[in-house]
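We close this part of the discussion by returning to an individual protein. The amino acid sequence and the backbone structure tokens for this protein are reproduced below:
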Amino acid sequence: MTTETVLTVRPDVPVITVIERFAGAVTEDQGTSSKPRRPAGRPEDVVRNPDVVRARELLPSVLKSRDGFLAALLLAGLDGEFVVYSQWRAAGEPPAEVPAEWSVAGELAGFDLVDRRTYTVDFSAPADLTRFSVRDTPLAHFGVFSVDADDQERMLELARKHAPDSIGTPGLLGINFHRSLDGGQVINLGAWNSFESFGDLLGRPGFQDEAVYWEGVAEFRPHFFAVVDVVTKAELAIWATLKVLPGQQAEAERFFAFSKDVLDAEPGTTSFFAVKIDDETYGIFDTFTDQEALDVHIEGASGKQAVSDLVGTVFAGPPVITNSVVVQRGRS
């Protein structure tokens, strides 16, 4: 049994992303370039770096103790850097600067802060949702585009037009373009299961050395990472059983299919399972990042009112619900 924790990236959800980039003791940020380059370094080496090991041991408890924290990626750069990509639930206006309580810079020994900003996700491809995990997406890249604030929207327009051409590169599972709230950067977070065919990307339209799509709009630098860890808040869960009226099994299962589509739009709902126990009984198991996410679900389009509307026509009565806490995620 191996632990499989997942972080989800998607646009159009009320989540603020913080990206803190750190240089290692023997590396520096190497400036900018107008052209892509191939990954260098070996993931197995950077994961074993003592500073990375210490960060991996320390940061989960630090992040989970902070109010508003949802999830984080810990990324070890193949050229020695380290990145904490974290997601937060903001109260009020999204902050243009990183709040002190969202930053981990003061907790990291062995790394010097290079850049720290807040972001929202502008668009993702090929789907509206990318899932990151140590097992399924062991590698990641940042395409960091530095722009004047007046050019940020133009940069994103070009990215929406050209960046999806990267999809189809072997090993690349998804791209996710982020806009910094201070206007000065655009970052593409790419999910990879292998960098072996990264060179294929450099020959695609819009990525060739003589015709990169961001030329004249942004300064560019790629960064390549091993996914060291995925950190999430301790999840809450509900287990519900529902009795189905005779002959209404198909209608019940259509409702569960609708519920899945609705739940995929709830950023705090981390998983959803509908199971058939017998011809009269169905079970639902949902997990949530926190109590607020659970409450949003209960009051939402697939929550208690949606079920109540079907009592007497599809379901024999309201669900019997048990609340719980997830203590281990596993996958064989």
User: Anything to note?
Assistant: The mean pLDDT is 86. The first helix runs from residue 43 to 47. The longest strand covers residues 111-125.
